[in-house]
Amino acid sequence: KSSLLCHIQNLLFFLIVPWFLTLFHISNFVLIGVGLISLFIVIKFAPAATRKQPIPKHLIKRKWLTSIMVSILLLIVCIFIKRPLVQLVVWGMFLESLTLLPIFFTKEDV
C-alpha cells in the first residue's frame, strides 16, 4: 500500500526470516516439500505479466519453459550444497514463486 510498508516487508522477508532459518534445523523432507510446492507454483503461474511489463505472446512459452528449467536446476543444485545455504536457496525460491500468485496482482495490472 505504501513505500515504507513495502520496504519493511522486504526487510522482513529477505533479511530477518533468512537469518532465523539459519538458526533452526529444518528437515530435508520439509525443504523438499517447500521446493516442490515452489516448482508447482512456477509451473502453474509463470510467467506473470503486468500492465507495466507485458509479455509478448511469442515469448510466453519460452519464458514458461525457462522458469521451470531454472527452478529444477535450483532444486538439483540444492542436493550438492551445504546446509544453511540450501535453506536460503529454497526460501528464496519459495518467495519468488509466491510473487507469481494472482493475489499479488491488482485487476489493473493484468
From TrEMBL:
GO cellular component, as recorded: membrane
Xref: SMART domains: AgrB
GO process annotations (BP): proteolysis; quorum sensing
Pfam families cross-referenced by the UniProt entry: AgrB
Residues annotated as transmembrane: 12-43, 64-82, 88-105
Keyword Nucleus attributed: no
Keywords: Cell membrane, Hydrolase, Membrane, Protease, Quorum sensing, Transmembrane, Transmembrane helix, Virulence
One of the record's GO molecular function terms: peptidase activity
Highest taxon listed in the record's lineage: Bacteria
UniProt-listed InterPro entries: AgrB
The protein's name in its UniProt record: AgrB
